[in-house]
């Protein structure tokens, strides 16, 4: 009963909350908070033992954060549930006061695991200078687009994305928040040739979690036995994370999960339920052009 009342109050507050605004940094659309504090973000001082988790939004970042945390805690699920995702891993450029990922990261003792959605050209230089380990997760553009569209509907930190048709155009034009998906995945793909970056794909983790989680483990210099690995696979599975209040973002007051839950579907190929035949054709043609200059290849089918 109490929970129902609390939920009702939260929804009333959400309805009254103003939607977030965006602006631009060097031609990339970012949330206003990041633009307002851009100089401070750019000057952020990374430390050599920082680990950076990077992605275009909606590519499985939270999933990877949970995997990394479980690995670092040797598969101890209780330790991993010590705090919500965003408290465990500061979200560097998210500044919506009183939350400031930047402040949180600055105050946090090492070793730090920091999250960002910044494209390579906007990553604070100290991460490169300090040779930090970085893990990038990429997800196929069609599913990312669908997931981001629903996320816009439920999270008030974003401006209204308009209709699905409107958002589809915004995405293709690279005018969405955090810029062009195409430039983002290609930029980080190229950066991995000269920097310590582990580049993962959402679809691979979904298909073969043991192998992909094993890669993360190795990259972090950990050697956990098979039993612990199985435990990590279980605790980072969609259904378990969806029920875990520390990883499902139900603590976040800017999100309204009754519109669309943060842990929405967690599948490959949901785009098929959203793209019209005409949109798919247009997308494929445009995709071929934009991705002609990369060796990157994505699986878009289940
Ligand atoms: P959907 O909206 O398609 O369900 P991010 O953390 O980068 O914002 O990405 C969120 C997306 O990853 C959402 O996709 C969410 O459901 C999915 N996701 C989160 N945890 C997952 C898990 N353990 N397994 C599969 N997908 C997961």
Q: Please state the overall shape, judged from the principal axes of the Cα atoms.
A: globular
Unreliable residue runs:
none
Bound ligands, named by name, code or SMILES: adenosine-3'-5'-diphosphate
Tally the helices. Answer: 16
Biggest sheet details: 4 strands, parallel
Strand order across the largest sheet = 6-3-7-8
Order of helices and strands: HEEHHEHHHEEHEHEHHHEHHHHH
Helix content: 40-55%
CATH topology: Rossmann fold
CATH architecture: 3-Layer(aba) Sandwich
Proportion of residues in extended strands: 5-15%
Overall mean confidence score, pLDDT: 96
Q: Measured on Cα atoms, how large is the radius of gyration?
A: 19 Å
Tally of extended strands? 8
Overall tally of domains: 1
The N- and C-terminal alpha carbons lie at a distance of 40 Å
User: Which class best fits the helix and strand makeup?
Assistant: alpha/beta
CATH superfamily: P-loop containing nucleotide triphosphate hydrolases
Can you describe what's shown?
It is a single chain. The protein is α/β, with parallel strands linked by helices and 302 residues long. It has one domain (2-290): P-loop containing nucleotide triphosphate hydrolases (Rossmann fold, 3-Layer(aba) Sandwich), CATH 3.40.50. It is built from 16 helices and eight strands. The protein has helices spanning 2-16, 32-36, 38-42, 61-72, 77-80, 85-88, 101-107, 125-129, 141-154, 164-173, 181-191, 202-207, 209-219, 226-235, 238-243, 277-290; strands spanning 22-25, 28-31, 51-55, 95-96, 99-100, 113-116, 133-138, 197-201. A four-stranded parallel β-sheet has the order 6-3-7-8, with helices on both faces. A two-stranded antiparallel sheet has the order 1-2. It has a two-stranded antiparallel sheet with strand order 4-5. β4 and β5 (99-100) form a beta hairpin. The chain starts with a helix and ends in a 12-residue tail after the last helix. The mean pLDDT is 96. The structure holds adenosine-3'-5'-diphosphate. Adenosine-3'-5'-diphosphate binds at residues 55, 57-63, 143, 147, 150, 236-238, 241, 263-266, 270. The site of adenosine-3'-5'-diphosphate has 20 residues, from α4, α9 and α15.
């Amino acid at each position: 009963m109490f929970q129902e009342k609390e939920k009702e109050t939260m929804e009333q507050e959400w309805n009254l909350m103003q939607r977030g605004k965006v602006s631009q940094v060097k031609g990339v659309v970012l949330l206003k908070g990041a633009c307002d504090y851009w100089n401070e973000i750019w000057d952020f001082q990374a430390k050599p033992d920082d680990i950076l988790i990077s992605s275009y939004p909606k590519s499985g970042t939270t999933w990877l954060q949970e995997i990394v945390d479980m690995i670092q805690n040797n598969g101890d699920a209780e330790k991993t549930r010590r705090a919500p995702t965003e408290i465990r891993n500061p979200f560097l450029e998210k500044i919506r006061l009183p939350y400031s990922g930047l402040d949180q990261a600055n105050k946090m003792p090492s070793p730090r695991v920091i999250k960002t959605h910044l494209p390579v050209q906007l990553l604070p230089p100290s991460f490169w200078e300090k040779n930090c380990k970085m893990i990038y997760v990429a997800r196929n553009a069609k599913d990312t687009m669908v997931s981001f569209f629903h996320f816009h509907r439920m999270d008030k930190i974003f401006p209204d994305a308009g209709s699905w048709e409107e958002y589809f155009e915004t995405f293709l034009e690279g005018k969405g928040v955090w810029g062009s998906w195409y430039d983002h995945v290609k930029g980080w793909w190229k950066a991995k040739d000269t920097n310590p970056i582990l580049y993962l794909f959402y679809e691979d983790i979904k298909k073969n979690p043991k192998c992909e989680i094993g890669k993360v483990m190795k990259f972090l210099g950990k050697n956990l036995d098979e039993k612990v690995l199985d435990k990590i696979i279980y605790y980072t599975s969609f259904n378990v994370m969806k029920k875990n209040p520390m990883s499902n973002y139900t603590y976040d007051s800017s999100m309204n999960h009754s519109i669309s839950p943060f842990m929405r579907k967690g599948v490959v190929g949901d785009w098929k339920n959203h793209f019209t035949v005409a949109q798919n054709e247009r997308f494929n043609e445009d995709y071929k052009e934009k991705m002609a200059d990369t060796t990157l290849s994505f699986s878009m089918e289940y």
